[in-house]
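Re: [ENG-882] Designed sequences occasionally contain unexpected residues at chain ends

Forwarding the minimal case from QA. Structure tokens:
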């Protein structure tokens, strides 16, 4: 295990200066006794200083620029000499990517990461953890948000004195952006991920919420989702890290520490598999590990930095011990993913009603009416620990299950350019069809119920579709994209292109135009058309009368009654409510 004099002092939660102020690898946090955290200029200086101090083990690299023009920096670290992705892949070294400051007010990961990195580099033994892996450390992901510095940016968090802001300079929440990849920051991160292909991606946060004794939660996928063999390794990673933290005095949990009913501790907890807008819901779709580390906001900053440091060290130790075998399992999962055609695949999960008891370590509390809000409010007494005997729903079962197309997806030329750009951002393989397809046997998805969200989310109007895939003969023009299922990222392909998947391009409103009626028939014209159709087709007249009798809502809706006939007219737009992306069981051309 990695240890240092700095961390020994940190364990006692002292707030006196712990290091020589002249040490170029020390941090503002250390020098202040973990009362403060530094600005981003410190990250720039430390990145260069680590490379200067360890020129054969560290590379300070810029992997992007923020919208406000700041450099996005990563430290690439290895004692195995593999300081490029090509060298790492050639030597078969597992890559661990540790990311801090995606929510820049939750900045424990930056300061803890520099501590863990310095300790690891001080270990010069032939069996050091850095000789068995490549560490990529991104101290701050949301850099523009980090520089929106101020007191009380996190009013429900104890320390540091000042911190950054949750969202980016463009007001995006980066931990809602992995699948849709709207932001320049996320697009830069995905380039880094595509280049290095990390076995594990560790996302360091501070949780909001109630007051209790538990100080950290560790969630990992795949554990409940995706490749079965990789789930076993994901559970081993999670459980081993939790065990390491417990041995060091923490009270870790394996589920997100948020009540089922806000502000009500008696309501218990529910585990989940997060959708791929989140880091730990995204990487299992690439057959890699995603870990969410959440320290507890009501622990003070020295305690949170210590716990986050311990989590980073625990993960590094696990990758050093097991990374080689886990990497083999992940690569085998890539091969299995490429063979998913025709199989049922879960695209979302939910907890069943099955519960189990949990003795959760909280504090005594009261719930009384507030004369401010008028609601019941919870008040905790942190001097009186109390066991909360609550329930946890953690029996996670597939929710949306979709049969995988045998060959892949087809994107018409009208949408090819922007969809191709999105696929490239995720490293998904596709090709452009140079010739048209005539009367091709395809599958199309037509929505029979469409629900637009009434408000914006992350600058999008989200869309919920109900419907099904059906066989259909269609023409497809030249310039369409073919996105094959036979590739390692097949699960990610489905997550983006299946219209009902929770974070698909369709769900984020990128195809909303297809579900908006653009052409219409004036009511007085529709009246004449309806009478003509009724006169010409007795069967249609009988169907209309039956619908009037059986469907009171239809009978009371003049527009719906006219649309009944408009849909049977040649002017009706057959593409209305037709999802533009199609599926095929035959590889085209």
């Amino acid at each position: 295990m990695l240890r240092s004099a700095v961390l020994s002092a940190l364990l006692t939660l002292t707030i006196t200066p712990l290091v020589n102020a002249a040490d170029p690898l020390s941090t503002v946090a250390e020098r202040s006794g973990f009362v403060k955290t530094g600005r981003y200029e410190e990250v720039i200086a430390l990145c260069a200083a680590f490379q200067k101090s360890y020129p054969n083990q560290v590379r300070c690299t810029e992997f992007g620029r923020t919208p406000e023009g700041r450099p996005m920096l990563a430290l690439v670290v290895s004692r195995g000499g593999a300081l490029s992705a090509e060298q790492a892949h050639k030597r078969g070294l597992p890559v661990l990517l540790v990311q801090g400051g995606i929510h820049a007010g939750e900045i424990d990961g930056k300061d803890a990461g520099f501590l863990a990195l310095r300790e690891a580099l001080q270990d010069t033994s032939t069996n050091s953890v850095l000789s068995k892996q490549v560490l990529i450390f991104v101290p701050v992901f949301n850099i523009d948000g980090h520089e929106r510095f101020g007191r009380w940016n996190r009013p429900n968090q104890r320390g540091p004195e000042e911190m950054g802001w949750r969202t980016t300079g463009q007001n995006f929440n980066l931990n809602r952006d992995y699948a849709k990849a709207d932001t320049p920051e996320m697009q830069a991160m995905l380039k880094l991920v595509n280049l290095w292909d990390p076995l594990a991606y560790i996302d360091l946060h501070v949780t909001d919420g109630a007051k209790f004794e538990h100080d950290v939660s560790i969630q990992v996928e795949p554990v409940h989702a995706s490749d079965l063999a990789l789930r076993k390794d994901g559970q081993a990673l999670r459980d081993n890290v939790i065990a390491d933290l417990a041995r060091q005095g923490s009270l870790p949990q394996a589920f997100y520490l948020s009540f089922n009913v806000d502000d009500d501790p008696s309501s218990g907890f529910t585990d989940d598999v997060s959708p791929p807008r989140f880091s730990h819901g995204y990487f299992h779709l690439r057959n890699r590990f995603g870990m969410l580390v959440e320290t507890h906001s009501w622990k003070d900053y020295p305690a949170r930095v210590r716990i986050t440091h311990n989590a980073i060290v625990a993960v590094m130790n696990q990758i050093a011990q097991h990374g080689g075998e886990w990497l083999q399992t992940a690569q085998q999962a890539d091969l299995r993913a490429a063979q998913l055609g025709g199989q049922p695949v879960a695209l979302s999960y939910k907890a069943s009603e099955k519960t189990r008891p949990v003795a959760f370590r909280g504090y005594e509390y009261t719930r009384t009416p507030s004369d401010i809000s008028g609601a019941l409010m919870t008040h905790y007494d942190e001097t009186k620990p109390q066991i909360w005997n609550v329930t946890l729903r953690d029996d996670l079962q597939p929710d949306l299950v979709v049969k995988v197309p045998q060959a892949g997806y087809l994107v018409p030329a009208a949408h090819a350019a922007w969809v191709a750009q999105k696929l490239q951002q995720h490293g998904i393989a596709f090709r452009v069809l140079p010739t048209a397809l005539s009367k091709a046997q395809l599958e199309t998805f037509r929505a029979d119920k469409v629900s637009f969200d009434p408000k914006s989310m992350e600058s999008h109007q989200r869309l919920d579709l109900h419907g099904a895939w059906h066989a259909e003969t269609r023409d497809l023009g030249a310039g369409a994209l073919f996105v094959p299922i036979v590739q390692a990222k097949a699960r990610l392909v489905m997550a983006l292109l299946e219209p009902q998947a929770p974070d698909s391009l369709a769900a984020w409103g990128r195809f909303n135009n297809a579900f908006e009626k653009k052409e219409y028939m004036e009511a007085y014209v529709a009246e004449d058309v309806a009478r003509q159709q009724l006169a010409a087709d007795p069967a249609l007249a009988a169907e209309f009368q039956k619908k009037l009798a059986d469907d009171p809502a239809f009978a009371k809706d003049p527009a719906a009654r006219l649309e009944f006939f408009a849909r049977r007219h040649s002017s009706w737009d057959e593409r209305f409510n037709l999802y533009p992306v199609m599926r095929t069981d035959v590889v085209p051309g």
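QA comment: On inspection the terminal residues look reasonable. The first helix runs from residue 5 to 11. Proposing we downgrade this to a documentation issue.
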